[in-house]
């Protein structure tokens, strides 16, 4: 048990180290931006004193290492800095200094919750559906059903998300108005209403990830079917369904869990395009908008959150596969 | 409402079908051993077919009909192409076509068509990609009574550029840029990967850790972050921004190529013939190009197909988000974004709504085709038969 604990601790530390290095990469990349924020915001009014004042207010006059450490320290305490989006000349000078300066955390927090909701709904649909379909495809392998699902899932994986999204909008929102095509979500909505608005983007994401998970489930099960113990189970006269569900599936669980975790990571990070199509107020849309107006603190913070979620879920996949496979627990 | 009812109905009908099958066939083994699930599956398939036929002939919309017609047309084209391939060409190519599934021949046909359109876009397109013509927002179809023009079979866009020409040029720009990016990524990732595998030691460690860090950031997010910076560097020079995008995506994707080529290279480096070549005193260049590369072609070729799909989709997504290929270059992702609002008129003017779907479908069709071909190649080389 202690070795297991040690391995998990090791992985956790490794993940933390990765996150730290990633934050350095993000910070360094952002610092390659040419020009000066203070001058850009002031425009015509960029006098010597005003520029210095803003630089001092935002801490831009410090050397990069100090700024990085301050940013990191703030991020650890949940303070991700101040958004530049609504900053202007008046924010820094005169009586209403500080107006129009939104904190990044206040901008991101509700949107991050929305994105998690969307990812949660998609996962709740996608995981059971893909497991059942994967088992069925393995059970009826090389039949017409298997070939049809193969073609369908391959097409779904390789289509761009916006194509699937517009097809779904066309059939489920425009031609047969079942679901709303725009996800207008606000505070204080009832759960059912919210689910209704979220369902169409969630269905799009489900299509994308289900295909991948289903194919991996099928491949993992079929890989095992040649092993002697499956042969034995067959010779005992067990039904094909029982052979697959009771004998093959538990041993195929490790790769399946890995794929599920990786797809959940994809759900959190890959939502960008889907959120833009459906105007879903999530973190992905905020990220794209900030990229367009170069709102650096928000871009930096969203990047860090995305990378963190990605690393965390990869870590979970890693640990789960170690837990489910005794051979990995005792490396030679 | 109808779908759950049909599912429940199937549950009742399935044993009936199995029972009647047993009676009619005199208890043939096929019917005798049929599990309940299989019978249910057959019933569901029959119901789905009936439902589609009902949608197609009685109460469907025009998009469903187009979809079905397109599917059948593609299937027939793929079948004819395979038939032609079996009788024309060298002995080797005819042998390949004989064992080919229909999906793979469809993929090869589609890739060929795209290549031809992309190479000869200048001669195929009726107008230039930047040419602004007299009338904007012409409806596709070319019927003057509905607001079209026979000169513009797919209509014109919001500032009066011919959509058909832009679709054709889009093949050149989008596919061409994606292809160049993939080649660059392979040049970079492949070289570094093989170097790391052959030399080993601290170089291998350094490169591997560097790639690990780059891979820890999700690809699309990292690309968007770097594109922010690139757009600040490029300023108003749009051609330069496209060039930056090629480099950025090539670097991000080269990490995945590095992983694969290093793994493949490591497996080859321990072979006896490499040992022999080393003892002969061959240099590094001979080792990489004459010994390792020829033995790593098959997995790298399959990876090239998949990587191309990823790069192509990333570029399309970036363009769709507005930070990818810049106007005035025609590009499918940008076209989808610009024309997407027409989908809302699908119930009244189906032709107008079809244009953004056509651009998005052009992207999807190529990636699906490449995936079909890669799937077939992998299946053939892996020998996964069951």
UniProtKB/TrEMBL annotation, chain A:
<dbReference type="InterPro" id="IPR045621">
    <property type="entry name" value="BPD_transp_1_N"/>
</dbReference>
<dbReference type="Pfam" id="PF00528">
    <property type="entry name" value="BPD_transp_1"/>
</dbReference>
<feature type="transmembrane region" description="Helical">
    <location>
        <begin position="298"/>
        <end position="323"/>
    </location>
</feature>
<feature type="transmembrane region" description="Helical">
    <location>
        <begin position="12"/>
        <end position="33"/>
    </location>
</feature>
<dbReference type="GO" id="GO:0055085">
    <property type="term" value="P:transmembrane transport"/>
</dbReference>
<feature type="transmembrane region" description="Helical">
    <location>
        <begin position="252"/>
        <end position="278"/>
    </location>
</feature>
<dbReference type="Pfam" id="PF19300">
    <property type="entry name" value="BPD_transp_1_N"/>
</dbReference>
<keyword id="KW-0812">Transmembrane</keyword>
<dbReference type="InterPro" id="IPR000515">
    <property type="entry name" value="MetI-like"/>
</dbReference>
<dbReference type="GO" id="GO:0005886">
    <property type="term" value="C:plasma membrane"/>
</dbReference>
<feature type="transmembrane region" description="Helical">
    <location>
        <begin position="116"/>
        <end position="140"/>
    </location>
</feature>
<keyword id="KW-0472">Membrane</keyword>
<keyword id="KW-1003">Cell membrane</keyword>
<dbReference type="InterPro" id="IPR035906">
    <property type="entry name" value="MetI-like_sf"/>
</dbReference>
<feature type="transmembrane region" description="Helical">
    <location>
        <begin position="199"/>
        <end position="226"/>
    </location>
</feature>
<keyword id="KW-0813">Transport</keyword>
<feature type="transmembrane region" description="Helical">
    <location>
        <begin position="161"/>
        <end position="179"/>
    </location>
</feature>
<keyword id="KW-1133">Transmembrane helix</keyword>
<comment type="similarity">
    <text>Belongs to the binding-protein-dependent transport system permease family.</text>
</comment>
<protein>
    <submittedName>
        <fullName>ABC transporter permease</fullName>
    </submittedName>
</protein>
Automatic annotation (TrEMBL), chain B:
<keyword id="KW-0812">Transmembrane</keyword>
<dbReference type="GO" id="GO:0055085">
    <property type="term" value="P:transmembrane transport"/>
</dbReference>
<feature type="transmembrane region" description="Helical">
    <location>
        <begin position="304"/>
        <end position="325"/>
    </location>
</feature>
<protein>
    <submittedName>
        <fullName>ABC transporter permease</fullName>
    </submittedName>
</protein>
<feature type="transmembrane region" description="Helical">
    <location>
        <begin position="102"/>
        <end position="125"/>
    </location>
</feature>
<dbReference type="InterPro" id="IPR000515">
    <property type="entry name" value="MetI-like"/>
</dbReference>
<dbReference type="GO" id="GO:0005886">
    <property type="term" value="C:plasma membrane"/>
</dbReference>
<feature type="transmembrane region" description="Helical">
    <location>
        <begin position="6"/>
        <end position="25"/>
    </location>
</feature>
<keyword id="KW-0813">Transport</keyword>
<feature type="transmembrane region" description="Helical">
    <location>
        <begin position="345"/>
        <end position="374"/>
    </location>
</feature>
<dbReference type="InterPro" id="IPR050366">
    <property type="entry name" value="BP-dependent_transpt_permease"/>
</dbReference>
<dbReference type="InterPro" id="IPR035906">
    <property type="entry name" value="MetI-like_sf"/>
</dbReference>
<feature type="transmembrane region" description="Helical">
    <location>
        <begin position="177"/>
        <end position="201"/>
    </location>
</feature>
<keyword id="KW-1003">Cell membrane</keyword>
<feature type="transmembrane region" description="Helical">
    <location>
        <begin position="37"/>
        <end position="57"/>
    </location>
</feature>
<dbReference type="Pfam" id="PF00528">
    <property type="entry name" value="BPD_transp_1"/>
</dbReference>
<keyword id="KW-1133">Transmembrane helix</keyword>
<comment type="similarity">
    <text>Belongs to the binding-protein-dependent transport system permease family.</text>
</comment>
<keyword id="KW-0472">Membrane</keyword>
<feature type="transmembrane region" description="Helical">
    <location>
        <begin position="63"/>
        <end position="81"/>
    </location>
</feature>
<feature type="transmembrane region" description="Helical">
    <location>
        <begin position="213"/>
        <end position="234"/>
    </location>
</feature>
């Amino acid at each position: 048990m202690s070795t297991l604990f040690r391995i998990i601790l090791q992985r956790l530390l490794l993940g933390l180290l990765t996150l730290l290095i990633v934050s350095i990469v993000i910070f360094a990349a952002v610092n390659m931006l040419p020009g000066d924020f203070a001058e850009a915001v002031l425009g015509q009014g960029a006098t010597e004193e005003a520029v210095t004042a803003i630089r001092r207010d935002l801490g831009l006059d410090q050397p990069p290492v100090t700024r990085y450490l301050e940013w990191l320290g703030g991020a650890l305490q949940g303070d991700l800095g101040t958004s530049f989006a609504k900053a202007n000349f008046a924010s820094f000078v005169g009586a209403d200094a500080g107006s129009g300066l939104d904190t990044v955390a206040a901008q991101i927090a509700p949107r991050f919750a929305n994105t998690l909701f969307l990812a949660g709904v998609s996962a709740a649909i996608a995981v059971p559906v893909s497991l059942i379909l994967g088992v069925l495809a393995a059970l009826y392998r090389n039949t017409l059903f298997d070939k049809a699902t193969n073609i369908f899932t391959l097409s779904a994986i390789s289509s761009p998300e916006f194509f699937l999204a517009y097809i779904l909008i066309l059939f489920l929102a425009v031609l047969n108005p079942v679901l709303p095509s725009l996800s207008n979500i606000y505070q204080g909505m009832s759960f059912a209403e919210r689910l209704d608005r979220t369902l169409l983007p969630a269905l799009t994401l489900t299509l994308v990830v289900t295909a991948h998970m289903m194919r991996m489930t099928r491949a993992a099960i079929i890989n095992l079917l040649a092993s002697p113990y499956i042969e034995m189970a067959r010779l005992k006269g067990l039904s094909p369904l029982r052979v697959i569900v009771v004998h093959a599936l538990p041993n195929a669980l490790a790769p399946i869990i890995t794929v599920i975790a990786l797809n959940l990571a994809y759900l959190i990070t890959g939502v960008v395009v889907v959120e833009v199509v459906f105007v879903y107020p999530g973190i992905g849309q905020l990220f794209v908008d900030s990229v367009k107006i170069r709102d650096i603190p928000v871009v930096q913070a969203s990047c860090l959150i995305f990378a963190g979620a990605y690393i965390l879920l990869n870590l979970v996949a890693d640990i789960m596969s170690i837990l489910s496979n005794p051979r990995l627990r005792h490396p030679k | 409402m109808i779908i759950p009812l049909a599912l429940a109905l199937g549950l009742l009908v399935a044993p009936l079908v199995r029972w009647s099958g047993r009676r009619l066939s005199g208890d043939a083994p096929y019917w005798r051993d049929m599990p309940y699930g299989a019978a249910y599956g057959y019933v569901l398939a029959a119901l789905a077919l009936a439902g589609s036929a009902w949608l197609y002939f009685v109460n469907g919309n025009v998009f469903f009909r187009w979809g079905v017609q397109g599917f059948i047309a593609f299937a027939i084209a793929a079948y004819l192409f395979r038939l032609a391939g079996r009788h024309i060409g060298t002995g080797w190519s005819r042998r390949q076509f004989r064992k080919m599934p229909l999906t793979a021949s469809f993929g090869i046909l589609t890739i060929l068509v795209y290549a031809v359109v992309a190479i000869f876009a200048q001669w195929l397109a009726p107008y230039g990609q930047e040419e602004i013509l007299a009338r904007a927002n012409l409806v596709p179809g070319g019927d003057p009574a509905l607001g079209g023009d026979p000169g513009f079979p797919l209509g014109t866009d919001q500032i009066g550029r011919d959509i058909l020409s832009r679709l054709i040029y889009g093949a050149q720009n989008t596919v061409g840029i994606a292809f160049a990016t993939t080649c660059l990524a392979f040049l970079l990732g492949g070289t570094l990967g093989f170097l790391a595998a052959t030399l080993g030691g601290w170089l291998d460690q350094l490169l591997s850790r560097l790639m690990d860090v780059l891979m820890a950031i999700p690809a699309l997010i990292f690309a968007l972050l770097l594109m922010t910076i690139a757009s600040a560097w490029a300023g108003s020079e749009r051609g330069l921004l496209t060039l930056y995008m090629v480099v950025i995506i090539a670097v991000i994707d080269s990490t995945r190529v590095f992983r694969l080529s290093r793994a493949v290279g490591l497996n080859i480096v321990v072979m006896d013939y490499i040992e022999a070549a080393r003892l002969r005193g061959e240099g590094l260049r001979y080792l990489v190009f004459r010994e390792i590369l020829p033995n790593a072609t098959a997995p790298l070729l399959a990876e090239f197909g998949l990587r191309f799909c990823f790069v192509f989709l990333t570029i399309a997504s970036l363009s769709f988000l507005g930070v990818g290929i810049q106007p005035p270059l025609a590009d499918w992702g940008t076209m989808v974004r610009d024309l997407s609002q027409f989908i809302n008129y699908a119930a009244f003017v189906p032709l107008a709504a079809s244009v953004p779907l056509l651009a998005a479908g052009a992207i999807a069709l190529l990636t699906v085709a490449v995936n079909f071909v890669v799937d077939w190649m992998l299946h053939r080389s892996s020998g996964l038969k069951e």
